[in-house]
Amino acid sequence: MADPDNSPRSVDEDEQLDVTWLAGGWEPLLRHWIEQATARGVAEPGAMVLATVSLADGTPRPVARTVLCRGLSPEGVVFYTNFDSAKGAQLAAVPYAAVTFLWTPLGRQVHVRGAVQRVSAETTAAYWHARPRDSQLGAWASHQSQPIASRAELERELAQVIARFDDVDEIPVPPNWGGFLLRPDEVEFWQERHARLHNRIRVRITGDSSTIERLQP
């Protein structure tokens, strides 16, 4: 098996992440890195691991899964889900989360941590109506995170939803579906370097002010 430390990368060792890159704020640099990952052909450059806290058994436990970033602004990062899903329930109970973007071929990561709130119904509707019809139908058919007996039963649920909306041109937003905005209080940029002396720069955000500091790898 190949040594993962010696696996090929397209990392530019002459390009050193520096605090000056954050002069315009955290959001422009994160957007730029996503755009660069897209240009380099990285699969799903907007994918991010979302970590929440589960209190299901009375003991706080971390839960992580991959979702897609569907909005990025100076306010934060937006993703969408079923509010009755496991992550929806966890965010309702503990409205704080962390996401990690990872672009392995570029040797880069970004960690975003902060409070979470639902986006407006108008924002959800605008995104919903831009989704493919199949995705809308799937959202109606799936009771996300709930057990189901078989794949066949899930497909029967979808068939019923397709029939229900057969004559409907504009499928409405499900009442239990929408977006979350993660408002960061901390954003960390990570850049792979030789000998594991990686570059790490953290932005801490408090209200309208922020502090930027370099961290040891």
Overview of this structure, please?
- The chain is an alpha+beta fold and 217 residues long.
- It has one domain: Electron Transport, Fmn-binding Protein, Chain A (Pnp Oxidase, Chain A).
- 24% of the residues lie in helices and 35% in strands.
- It contains 5 helices and 9 strands; from the N terminus they run H-E-E-E-E-H-E-E-H-H-H-E-E-E.
- Strands 1, 2, 3, 4, 5, 6, 7, 8 and 9 form a 9-stranded antiparallel sheet that branches.
- Strand 7 and strand 8 (199-206) form a beta hairpin.
- The radius of gyration is 20 Å and the shape is elongated.
- The mean pLDDT is 94.
Quick structural summary:
The chain has 217 residues and is an alpha+beta fold.
* Rounded Rg: 20 Å
Query: What is the succession of H and E elements?
Result: HEEEEHEEHHHEEE
Query: Span from first to last CA?
Result: 26 Å
Q: Domains counted in the coordinates: how many?
A: 1
CATH class: Mainly Beta
- Helix count, per DSSP? 5
Q: Could you estimate the helical fraction of the residues in percent?
A: 10-25%
User: What's the overall geometry?
Assistant: elongated
Tell me about the biggest sheet?
A: 9 strands, antiparallel
The CATH H-level homologous superfamily: Electron Transport, Fmn-binding Protein, Chain A
CATH topology-level fold name: Pnp Oxidase, Chain A
What average pLDDT do the residues reach? Answer: 94
Number of strands: 9
Beta-sheet strand percentage?
Answer: 25-35%
* Low-confidence region ranges: none
Judging by the overall fold, what is the CATH architecture?
Roll
Q: What oligomeric assembly is this protein in?
A: single chain
Q: Structural class, please?
A: alpha+beta
